[in-house]
Write a structure and sequence with these properties.
Layout: E1 14-18, H1 51-62, E2 68-72, H2 82-89, E3 97-102, H3 107-117, E4 121-125, H4 131-138, H5 144-157, E5 160-167, H6 176-185, E6 189-194, H7 212-219, E7 225-228, E8 238-242, E9 248-252, E10 265-268, E11 273-275, E12 284-285, H8 286-290, H9 296-308, H10 314-317, H11 320-325, H12 331-334
Parallel strand pairs: 1-2, 1-10, 2-3, 3-4, 4-5, 5-6, 6-9
Antiparallel strand pairs: 7-8, 8-9, 10-11, 11-12
Helix pairs in contact: 1-2, 1-9, 2-3, 3-5
């Protein structure tokens, strides 16, 4: 069929599927433990999309031009039987890339099964090398060594790995250079993510943002870097590489250098709502449509209509005031 474009002429190429809203971390910028306490009510199992329903929705999106899938959460490894979902998704015609975003605490238990199911790409979250600081940031006292060990395990198995570090002023800026050195030496791409106002629970402000410009300037005090051209339209990361060994670093610049104009991503929550922006306030209920007995063609028509109506460009329009007043969906619910 003809290319499906939104109101700003952006095609749909990427779909992020959240498989659970639960997580074993309580990171301060995502699920602060003051809000997501022991009595927090997560979604019951019956409200979650089944893996068969996720496969059906992914097939619908693939027919519209989606090529890349990302499995997210919460922490996706907390959803039982995840390799069986990967087995289904890798068989979808048109899908060329499937990735998984994880904090990697449980990765040693599931890495082999995930690899055998066809998964090859991992995005692993790690915000500091200092044990005390990382334990404070993840809200569970987990040491970075547990993550680093599983990164090495996954690398040896053959996974393509990128490590994501959310940088916050007066929190983990001093960890930038140690993180860069560690992953440069191991040939693993490190991506620095500007602190974003996703959801309404992380006390975000512009004052807490460390921009790409600031991080790059700090890196250049120790390393020689050169820019790398984008691989494709809609690539989120601004990429650089070390001149001496070619290992890459990337920057996710939602705050300082918005990429709304080339955003090709849709997101599905674990209970089946579709969101056309990370900073959305509400989504469309695909679960109801999928469970209503409607045909695949009806599902496809609904997806086309949703994308063609899309006019999101929140990061272009963000101000301190809109960040405070807009009631955005939490990252733990929608996925990163």
């Amino acid at each position: 069929m003809a290319k499906v474009l939104d109101k700003f002429g952006r095609p749909i190429r990427d779909l992020r599927i959240s498989v659970t809203d639960r997580c074993n971390f309580r990171c301060t910028y995502c699920m602060p433990k003051e809000i997501f306490g022991n009595d927090y009510q997560f979604l019951p199992q019956k409200e979650l999309l089944t893996y068969e329903e996720m496969e059906r929705v992914a097939r619908g999106f693939a027919s519209l031009g989606v090529e890349k899938l990302r499995i997210t959460g919460g922490e996706p490894l907390m959803r039982k039987g995840l390799p069986s979902l990967i087995e289904k998704l890798v068989k979808i015609e048109g899908i060329t890339d499937i990735g998984l975003t994880t904090n990697a605490v449980m990765l040693d238990r599931y890495a082999e099964d995930l690899y055998n199911a066809g998964l090859r790409r991992l995005n692993i979250s790690l915000d500091a090398m200092d044990p005390f600081l990382f334990g404070e940031m993840n809200g569970r006292g987990t040491h970075p060594q547990a993550i680093l060990k599983n990164i090495e395990l996954a690398k040896e198995m053959g996974f393509n790995i990128k490590v994501n570090m959310v940088v916050q002023k007066d929190v983990n800026v001093l960890e930038i250079l140690p993180m860069a050195m560690h992953f440069k030496e191991r040939g693993i791409t490190l991506r620095f993510i500007e602190f974003m106002d996703v959801g309404n629970d992380n006390a975000w402000s512009f004052d807490k943002v460390v921009t790409k410009k600031d991080i790059l300037r700090l890196l250049q005090t120790e390393f020689e870097l050169e820019p790398v051209d984008a691989n494709y339209f809609g690539e989120v990361a601004k990429r650089y590489r070390y001149k001496d060994n070619g290992v890459e670093v990337g920057f996710i610049t939602s705050v300082s250098e918005s990429f709304c104009s080339s955003c090709t991503r849709a997101r599905i929550s674990s209970d089946g709502k579709i969101y056309t922006c990370l900073f959305a306030t509400e989504g469309f209920d695909l679960r109801e449509l999928v469970r209503s007995g409607k045909s695949d063609e009806a599902l496809k028509e609904a997806l086309v209509g949703l994308w063609q109506a899309r006019d999101d460009r929140y990061s272009d329009e963000r101000t301190e005031e809109t960040a405070k007043k807009r009631n955005k969906i939490n990252m733990s619910y929608i996925g990163g």
